[in-house]
């Protein structure tokens, strides 16, 4: 007697095959940890525990760094992982820092405050979307626009620095200006050095080690303050150099166009 499959089994099987997806577990677990700490930061910002919320963003950035490294080291990079990483970054480095900045410092500015916070989220999302649609290899040596983890790190380190200095972030005009600045540089085309081309496993000039030691000493002196200063300097200098390079490039283009107009061969 021949066994006949139930029609429900026959109908269920192709659905399972269509929905079936194999993924690399380890890097995506690290990405999930990144998302968890971003969500944790939002919850503790609502609870007015801003220091814990800031440290949660720092923890999220650590896992964001690890998931990419682990994926490359184990050869487990995938399109799914890239998209999942961007969605996690949207929570951890866009929504979480904007909520932290708004509830900690910008709420007294009323409409301007929450609009500045929304601008941070929107620009961060645009930065992530632009990165996703760019061709592979565009951002190897330099980042185009300030990376969202760095922008979130500036927000988190500002909370820690203000606590260390005994300053009040509530209704601070400087923090409002920083929020607008970070939003602008995230969606800008300014080039930020990624340092991915710096291979510390190779032989390098001796002064690299000296600079590294000095930098370590400066950060270790007062970590909360110095990290904020270093991160903010990175964002500001990138904007300054970007504006300068833009003007220089524009001038060079104008000179080239004039030469083409008077070139007798054209």
| Helix content estimate | over 70%
Order of helices and strands: HHHHHEHHEHH
Category by helix and strand content: mainly alpha
Largest sheet: 2 strands, antiparallel
User: Which residue ranges are poorly predicted, with pLDDT under 50 across at least 5 consecutive positions?
Assistant: 258-266
What is the C-level CATH assignment?
Answer: Mainly Alpha
Helix and strand arrangement:
Layout: H1 7-19, H2 25-46, H3 50-73, H4 79-106, H5 111-133, E1 142-144, H6 148-165, H7 173-187, E2 191-193, H8 206-221, H9 223-261
Antiparallel strand pairs: 1-2
Helix pairs in contact: 2-3, 2-4, 3-4, 3-6, 4-5, 4-6, 5-7, 6-7, 6-9, 8-9
Describe this structure in words.
This protein has 266 residues and is mainly α. Helices cover 74% and strands 2% of the residues. It has a single domain, classed as Four Helix Bundle (Hemerythrin (Met), subunit A), CATH 1.20.120.1760. A two-stranded antiparallel sheet has the order 1-2. Helix 3 packs antiparallel against helix 4 (79-106) and helix 5 (111-133) packs parallel to helix 7 (173-187). The chain starts with 6 loop residues before the first helix and ends in a 5-residue tail after the last helix.
List its salient traits.
266 residues, mainly alpha, two-stranded antiparallel ribbon, 2 strands, 2% strand, disordered C terminus
Structure in a nutshell:
This protein has a single domain, classed as Four Helix Bundle (Hemerythrin (Met), subunit A) (Up-down Bundle). It has nine helices and two strands; from the N terminus they run αααααβααβαα.
